[in-house]
Design goal:
The protein has helices at about 15-25, 40-50, 60-75, 90-95, 115-120, 140-150, 175-180, 210-220, 225-235, 240-265, 285-290, 315-330; strands at about 5, 55-60, 80-85, 100-105, 125-130, 155-160, 185-190, 205, 275-280, 295, 300, 310. The chain is of the alpha/beta class and about 325 residues long. It folds into two domains: about 5-10 and about 240-330, Alpha-Beta Complex (Aspartate Aminotransferase, domain 1), CATH 3.90.1150; about 30-235, Type I PLP-dependent aspartate aminotransferase-like (Major domain) (Aspartate Aminotransferase, domain 2). It starts with a strand and ends with a helix. It binds pyridoxal-5'-phosphate. Pyridoxal-5'-phosphate binds near residues 9, 61, 87, 161 and 191. Pathway: Amino-acid biosynthesis; L-histidine biosynthesis; L-histidine from 5-phospho-alpha-D-ribose 1-diphosphate: step 7/9.
Length: about 325
């Protein structure tokens, strides 16, 4: 039985063909160390985003950008703020640097920015905001997010995690790079793992003004991004057709999943990402039964959400399969 993997918010299309070819072409050069400056990719990103190349930090996935931000900004005992149900790695990263952390109670499963602002104290060094957030899929409009950035004291770094930014609708999109130009304390983190389809190659990036980007780069392991990963990311960045296809597939699939869950009388949270959080009763039981039916979704008890599961939007037939499996389980729930 081929498993249907809907547990890790990967792109169901897999790698773009353009990136596969670029990575393959780069492989013979992998007997040498990679370009530690990621020159070609940074050049392309710099042109795309209209920022100097030294405002960019390449990471082994955007996870590493989160780690570098904590290493660069937080001393043991200092304070980190994020949202309850914020991406689980924020708490882990804070723990790695021995920070004191506050998970600010969520509002309607999403970030309560007023409460997060209020949680910032004298010794707060770093605030994580995911937009959209994983696993809830919740989205903060540009207006309140900008007001939050304006309210944060300049000595506090804000890491705005846009791992799922490419899935936002045109009406939801905002220009966070313009905010980076305005706020020297802002890092925007992005990834090639989701809409660009390169999760296994491990590549993401951060954008911040020169001083802050320099501090992150100073913490960065020298050869943290492999040659094939850099080549694939460059190809994917230039593959507008693949990105458009990923966006369309996700938008349609997410709507279909949401409608199907609604028909099954299962509550889900409106999502701006490539996944849906759904309330199923006993999460572990339903998770195990879906596994037995050949479908892997994500448990959320590590978020304190044992009655919810997270389902990544898949190919149309995969979405139908998960809905059919949930329908079959209905008597058991
Ligand atoms: C909100 C969020 N940020 C960051 C990441 C990290 O992804 P990666 O390290 O693959 O870029 C993820 C992955 O699931 C995520 O959900």
């Amino acid at each position: 039985m081929t498993m249907i993997l809907l547990a890790s918010n990967e792109n169901p299309l897999g790698m773009p063909e353009s990136a596969r070819r670029a990575a393959a072409a780069a492989l013979p050069g992998a007997g040498r160390y990679p370009d530690s400056n990621g020159t070609a990719l940074k050049h392309a990103l710099s042109a795309r985003l209209d920022v100097p190349a030294d405002w960019l930090v390449l990471g082994s996935g955007s996870s590493e950008i989160l780690e570098l931000a904590a290493q660069a900004r937080v001393m043991p005992g200092e304070h980190v703020v994020y949202s309850q149900y914020g991406f689980v790695v924020y708490g882990q990263v804070a723990g790695q640097v021995h920070a004191r952390s506050t998970a600010v109670p969520a509002r309607d499963f999403g970030h309560d920015l007023d409460a997060m602002r209020a949680a910032i104290g004298e010794d707060t060094r770093l605030v994580f905001v995911a937009n959209p957030n994983n696993p809830t899929g919740t989205f903060i409009e540009a207006g309140p997010l900008l007001a939050f950035l304006e309210s944060v004291p300049p000595q506090v770094t804000v890491l705005l995690d846009e791992a799922y930014g490419e899935y936002l609708s045109p009406a939801q999109r905002y220009d966070s790079i313009a905010w980076v130009r305005r706020f020297p304390n802002l890092v925007v983190a992005r990834t090639f793992s989701k809409a660009y389809g390169l999760a296994g190659l491990r590549i993401g990036y951060g954008v911040a003004q020169h001083g802050l980007a320099g501090r992150l780069n100073a913490q960065r392991p020298r050869f943290n991004v492999s040659t094939p990963a850099q080549a694939a990311a460059l190809a994917a960045l230039n593959d507008g057709a693949f990105l458009a296809r990923s966006y369309q597939l996700n938008t349609a699939g997410r709507a279909r999943l949401a409608a199907g869950l609604h028909e099954l009388r299962l509550a889900s949270i409106p999502s701006a990402g490539n996944f849906l959080m759904v309330q199923v009763g006993e999460g572990r039981t339903v998770h195990a039964r879906l596994l037995a039916a050949g479908i892997e979704v994500a448990l959320l008890d590590n978020y304190g959400l044992p009655h919810w599961l997270r389902i990544t939007v898949g190919l149309p037939e995969q979405n139908e399969a998960v809905l059919a499996a949930l329908r079959d389980l209905a008597p058991a729930r």
